[in-house]
Amino acid sequence: MLNEIKGRLVVSCQALADEPLHSSFIMGKLALAAKEGGASGIRANTKEDIIAIKEEVTLPVIGIVKRDYEDSEIYITATKTEIDELIESGSEMIALDATMRKRPGNLSLAELVSYAREKSPTVELMADTASIEDAINAEKLGFDCVGTTLLGYTKKSSGRKLYDNDFAFLKDVLKEVSIPVIAEGNIITPEMLKRVLEIGAYAAVVGGAITRPQQITARFAAQIPE
After folding, report:
1. Which of 15, 32, 89, 189 could join 21 via S-S bond, C-beta 3.0 to 4.6 A?
2. Domain boundaries of the chain, sorted by first residue
3. Verdict on whether the full-model pTM lies above 0.85
């Protein structure tokens, strides 16, 4: 998958249960629209959505499963169960929360990486990170690529945005690791996409700015004087 998305756009097609577009059928159609618009890959949540997407497009998929656990803040591909589901979905790449936080059942990230490699050696692994330390650790554990996905979504990185200070976090990650770095998180304009690729991102994932119409509408509505 990395070869297919190098220097290109991956579109995240996701809608959680409380969102208006929550439907595997709709996610399949969103992926088709993304393909027609020029996307080279898709990022998607749940086995069911990924299967529906693969019925619509031949683009490679970064698969995740978002699931809450009582004993951990981690909810992106947190356990072996989610790895199994994503392998069954046919995802070419699996993304995991690769932060240093406690995992469900005290499972270590290293154990989860080893499990994924044993179950399906051909599936590539993406590390969703929120810090430089996360990225460095992910490379040591043998991930195929690092994503900036979780910056701003952990307690330690709360309030930070990927685009802060001309994408300073992305620049720092690029200095510290040698594996591909995928820019993801708050890339909300075409100009931002162009900039992260100029800086050196291997590829970029864009989600809400393309596939969450309620968020897109809210940005427009916010400009209307009260």
Report:
1. 15
2. 1-62, 65-186
3. yes
